[in-house]
Amino acid sequence: MTGKERRVQVLDPDVLDPDVMVRLIDRLNSYPVGLPDSPEIREFLTLFLTPDEALLASRFPLRDASAEELARAVGWDLEKTEGTLESMASKGTVMDFGLRGHRYWLLTPSVVGFVEFSLMKLHQGMPLQRLAELLENYGNNALYREVFGSGTPIFRALVGTDIPVTSQVVTYADVEKIVREAGWGALQICYCRHKELLLGRPCQKASHEGTCISLGKGADFMIRRGFGRRAEVAEILDLVRKLGKEGLIHVTDNVRDRPSFICNCCGCCCVVLSGVRKLKMPSAIAASPYVLSVDAKLCVGCGLCAKACQIEALEVSDRAVTITPKCLGCGSCIRFCRKGALSLIPRKTAPKVPSGTTTKYVRIAWEKGRLFPLLRAAFRSKMRRWIQKPKAPVRRLES
């Protein structure tokens, strides 16, 4: 069956109710980083989700929920609801976790979530090439404006391993420190490079397999749901060093405490780096607290550093290197300088990094005018957990 034939078939209104599609997109677009409506995303959701999965996703509240709550919301019995949730979890469209003896489900956000998970696993029976085509077009239009449309970046750059730094102003930009504090992680398919491979543009820098790293609770989910395999600190650091020697830029959550992933990004494939390189959007990714410095006495203007830079932040003219404002301060170019003319120095003003994930998304939601619905949902979730919290037994006072 060709992609066109499949597309006509699955878009039949008898298979997926158009009203469900509208409600689903509205629900996904209510996150701080949403999923704007477009013909591409409608076809993507139709191909990626079954009608039951789409219906259940559209009924999710703006918080986590139990299977019992979701069953009531959609009017199904518990067995069908749990079966559909398990199917969705295998695709990464929902995440599950346990708390105080209860199991909760959360509809994954658009980014990182619905979009990336679709190509981070070899989903059987899925038209992966067509999904890649749709996400390519969607990413170049509606999604770019949504992901990079706030003042608070979702991602930030890290300083590579073995890169000399003249001052230890902060340590949250140290990729090795993040890995060691996490203790372990999961290795899985890189969404960006896999998408490019499906589109006939394989990466020349690194494989799409096993080059994306999840940490913490995210790693646990990725392993349980078949997206990745467990890796210990030594293996992860070996991988990071290997990819760093290829000039790749290490990118993580734009948070100080417990980042949930590390991407090893190339300029040719990474959709985040392309926001800096192609679209010149300063909010695409937060820079490290350092910036590159060039020793004019040692630099011979050979251009090797500029050639190695994944975001084209260096310019060479008259046998001299100029650092543009795009520089992320990752230091990836330093290892390519044969004269020792490059180093990292502290920025005059270090970027303000949110303390954690909640703080980051609260800022983004405020900047996009989506904060108050999220606060109401968070309050309801907290109250429900307080009600369900086991009460301490009453002790009788001794006479």
Describe the structure.
The chain has 399 residues and is of the alpha+beta class. The protein is built from 16 helices and twelve strands. Strands 3-7-8-5-4-6 form a six-stranded antiparallel sheet, sandwiched between helices. Strands 1-2 form a two-stranded antiparallel ribbon. The chain has a two-stranded antiparallel sheet with strand order 9-12. A hairpin with a 7-residue loop joins strand 7 and strand 8. Helix 2 packs across helix 4, helix 3 packs across helix 8 and helix 9 runs antiparallel to helix 12. It is elongated and about 75 Å long.
Key words describing this protein structure:
single chain; 399 residues; alpha+beta; Arc Repressor Mutant, subunit A; 3 domains; six-stranded antiparallel β-sheet; two-stranded antiparallel sheet; disordered N terminus; disordered C terminus
Structural class of the helix and strand makeup? Answer: alpha+beta
Helical segment tally?
Answer: 16
Distance between the termini: 82 Å
Radius of gyration: 23 Å
The average pLDDT value, as a whole number, equals 86
Shape: elongated
Please estimate the helix content.
40-55%
- Can you write the helix and strand succession as a string? HHHHHHEEHHEHEHEHEHEEHEHEEEHH
Can you tell me the residue ranges where pLDDT is under 50 for at least 5 consecutive residues? Answer: 1-14, 390-399
Characterize the biggest β-sheet: 6 strands, antiparallel
Oligomer: single chain
Strands, count: 12
Main-sheet strand order equals 3-7-8-5-4-6
**Total discrete domains:** 3
- Report the sheet-strand fraction: 5-15%
